[in-house]
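Example 3.2
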Amino acid sequence: MAASVFLLIFAIVVSTCNAANELHTSIHLLRPRPGFGRQLVEGVDCLSWRLAVETNNLRNWRLVPESCEKYVGNYMLGKQYRRDCKAVADAALEYASSLNLTGDGKDIWVFDIDETTLSNLPYYARTDVQFGAIPYNDTKFNEWVAEGEAPAIPAVRYLYNKLLTIGIKNVFLSGTNVRFKEVRISNIHKAGYRSWEKIILKGEGDKGLSAVAYKSKRRTELVSQGYRIVGNIGDQWSDLLGDNAGSRTFKVPDPMYYIA
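Structure, written as C-alpha cells:
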C-alpha cells in the first residue's frame, strides 16, 4: 500500500515538472509589461522601428511616426544615444589603432558633419520640428545652420582627436551647400575640431545628385588625388555606401531623418 501511494505521488510530481518545463520553454509573443503586467510597455514598437532604421531595413521613410516622437526625443536626449555613439567611436578607434600606416600623409578618415561631427539636437528638439515628426523645412534648417551654434558630438570629437595622434588625417564631407562654408568652418572650429586636411561641401556641379552619388563622386576625387580612405563615419547609410566608401565604415545612430 505504501509503495503504491509513493508511486502515485512520484507520478504526479513528474507530470507537474514536465508541464512546468513545457510552459517554461514555450515560445510566446513578446508582450513586455512593467510591474505586475497590467500595462504594455509604451514605445516597444518604436524600438523595433528604430532598429529597422539603423539596420537600413526600412528605407526612404519621410517622417518619424507620430506615435514615436516622444520615444525618439527621449532616446536622443538621454544617456543611451551617447552610449551608442561612444560604442561606435570605440570600435572605430580599435580598428584605426590596428592599421599599419605608411606615414606619407595620404591616409585619411572621412567624417560627415550633420549628426556625426556636429549635433543639430538644439534644432530638432524644437516644438516646430519635434525630432523629425514634422515635415522637414529647408528654410528653417538653413537658418539654424547659419547660426553656427551646433555642438560637437563628444564621442566623435574624441575619435577625431585620437586619429590625429595616430597619424590619420581627417576630411569633412557634407551635403551642406557651399554657401555655408565659412559659417560651417567657424562652427566646426568652435566645437573643438581644430584642423583638417579638407572640408568638402556641395557645390553647383553637384546639383541633382543623390546623396550616395554625390559622396561617391567626392570620395573618388580624393582617391584620384592619391589619398587612401582608411575609415569613414556618418549617420546616414548614404554616407557609407557607393564608390570608394573606405576600408571600414562606421555608422552613428540617427532615427530623426533619412537621406537617400
